[in-house]
Amino acid sequence: MNASKLQLSAFLVSAIGMWGSLYLYVPAFAVFAEEQGASLAMVGLIWSAYGVVQGILRVPTGYFSDRFGRRLPFLVIGVGMTALGSLLMALSPHPAVLMLGRGLHGFGAAAFVVQSVYFASFFPPEKVTRALLGISSLIALTQLAVSLLGGQMALHWGQSSTFWGSAALGAISVAAIMVAGEQHVARRIEFDWSRFRTVLADPVLLLVSATAALLVFGEFGITQTTMLLLADRLGADSAYLGLLTAINYLAIGSAGLLLATLGSYPERWVVIAGLVISGVALLLMPLAGGLAGLTVLAFVKGAMRGSMMPSLMGLGLKVVAPDARASAMGLFQAIYAIGMFAGPVSTGIISQVAGLEAPFYAIGAFTTLAAGLVFVLFRRWQAG
Questions:
Q1: How far is the CA of 54 from the CAs of 10, 195, 333, 343, in angstroms?
Q2: Under DSSP, is residue 223 helix (H, G, I), strand (E, B) or coil?
Q3: List of domains in the chain
Q4: 76 has pLDDT over 80
């Protein structure tokens, strides 16, 4: 195996380990936190810590990675924090410690800024979107596998076992990225705030980032928390919660792989149609009447997210130079991280005040209506 193939292989092992670590404990986590004494609003706050930390760190992570022309230190620190967060949650399940652990996982996930451009650099510019579809599908399939595994682990050995497993996967990820090593960056940019501000103010980048924030708002506010609480009320055990979570990620990964095989496709129309279908699926979830209907709708929503998110990432990276990609990706991910903490906090509060079904109606209606606004803005961009 030549050096390039070894580097790519080690990177992929690290990516699988990192995302496995971040999601192994997810299926039964919301129910587990509630069992530890957290209210619905507190569950939302615990879950949102992941997004708060990412929102703070992603722009500086991208900027300094470009500024110093380094990728490896940011990846090592990120996956190391992921392992540490899992270890803390394994040692103490108190709600405050769960929040700290989620925050450290947000620190680790901020490394996705660098991880995505590290992977994209293995491909020529015209294949960036397909590369991002590939890495997104790999992440989704990893999430699928660990969701099934995590649900079974929680059922048979308790939720703490998933935290220990998560810590082990984080350690594997650290070792693998050290094997992959540093990646050559074409050149180091000067400390140029004017150039940096130009990247951050690009209207196309801002539009796709805001749209991604809406997707993530629904993912973290509904799919990873409120939907699982609804399934619990409908009679799902830990294993079924793992299955439901896995089906969501199966849909995400399958949609990404399908689009990757198409080569070029109308990215903007995929985004607009996906918003409409996702919104309708959310509106129907409280009316599903049972676990079977809820599972089908989870698959539909997952497929839409799997097609939209890489398309938005690709659209954002196309408008910036290769040596500014980490900065652009940092902005993209920092903006969509708003959805990571705003989603769980909002749905937690809405659920506590208006009932568990209310967030589905509110976010579903907003997502459907947002498709019209995105259509208008895309048309304006195209005309300009």
A1: 25, 23, 8, 14
A2: helix
A3: 3-180+195-383 (1.20.1250.20)
A4: yes
